Amino acid sequence: MKYYSKDWYHKMQVYGFLLSFPETKVEWDKSIKRFKANGSDYIQSRKEELEIIKKDLLKFLPESLHSYINDGTLISMFPSEKLRKMINRWKDEYIKNMEDLDKEYLINYNSSKDLLPLNIVKLNEISLHDSNVKSFEKPTKETFVINLDCEGGFNDFSEITLTFNGVKEISMPENIKGGFWLYDEVYPSNPGFEFHVLFDIPFIEFKIVAEDIVVEGKNI
């Protein structure tokens, strides 16, 4: 994927992790007390969260923050003014970069939309985020079908079936059955379109090149 790739998604998780930083010492102390009242250790919980995402923190955050990551002080104590400034600076840069990326993709999409089949343009108007792949099949050499459960998704359908016709290429590193639809991109191809999807569980980038698509939805 050119825009909403695995790295893009991992970086977004780093941003989400940093958003959970308490803004004030009062908030920090309240969190510790709340966890303690429930028989848990707030700082230990944060340390465990850091270990899960540590690889991405080291990859995407500047070296000036690496010592805080490696010794655990990034989250084991209320952040100093210096640390909070560094974190806020990175978050501000992240937001700007993501806004620029979204604008760039939208500009490119709008400039090439007239070259896309009408059905893929219509599909692009439906959010498939968090839809779950119930099944997929390849009934013919040039046909590929994906059945989606949209109950937990962000659209007004309970199910959607995507039938890709005139398939020229499919890249599917792992079985996508059971996977959750995260984000997608589409580009013109001659003829047809090139469609990319970032799935979770398994965490893969899926690609299909086809001439057209049929979208069938069952309303909630």
UniProtKB/TrEMBL annotation:
It comes from the Bacteria. It holds the Pfam family DUF4085. This is DUF4085 family protein.
